[in-house]
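Sample 3 of the quickstart, ligand zinc ion:
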Amino acid sequence: MALHDGRRLLALIPHPDDEAYSMAGLLAQAASDGAAVFVISATSGEAGYDHTTPDARPSDIASTRELELTQSCRILGLPPPRFMGWPDGGVADLPLAQAVADLAHVVELVQPHVVVSLGADGAYGHADHIALWRFIWALLSNRAAGQDPVRWLSAAFPAALFDAQRRRMAQGRDARQLVPPTGAPAVSTEIEVRLGSLRNRKLDAIAAHRSQLPDQDPRSLFPLGTVDALLDVERFHLEAGPPLPPGASDPFGGLTAPA
Ligand SMILES: [Zn+2]
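Result:
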């Protein structure tokens, strides 16, 4: 669509694989509509477990997961991702000023019209996820007058969808990364992307993260039933920036075309 020519979307994710279950459909749709889509992962996921190579070292896991994210992006019709090199499992420990400066540098380079991330709940409460949301909030929630406004969307999930994943995480090696739920009410959702024929590409993008799949089946990324609930529709909350028209399915909806 000509309307999307010159439009730029920046996906800011904490780890390789966070793009796949949360926003793969939106990213693939935006790219197919002609937007330039940039995926930037804060960490390389080196603290994760490699289910294909149980004795892998962190540096090997990072390389593996960077390649897996590259493959996921290829499946979704996106260019190769970039990595910020933040410490996996240590995002919340970064000094606020440094983290915001790093993100500001990325935003300055990409000059996105739309930023997409996980939400304040960190999807299933991973500390890195929540910390990245806080840093993006610090950068984007109060853009100074004179700066181009950026529309920031965050992935919103059905209530209690990740309860089983929280329980799995609490019993596993990532237990100390789990942040208890705050009890905050569910956020509003201002955009809804129906995946339709993108459903299988989303599943393939999840499957690209082989090291994260206990059973080498994309549905094993999370406890049974979770992935299936994510394949038909993706919903997003408007965190900041220009409002969306009612019933929007296009992340750029209502934005004026760039000059
Ligand atoms: Zn993650």
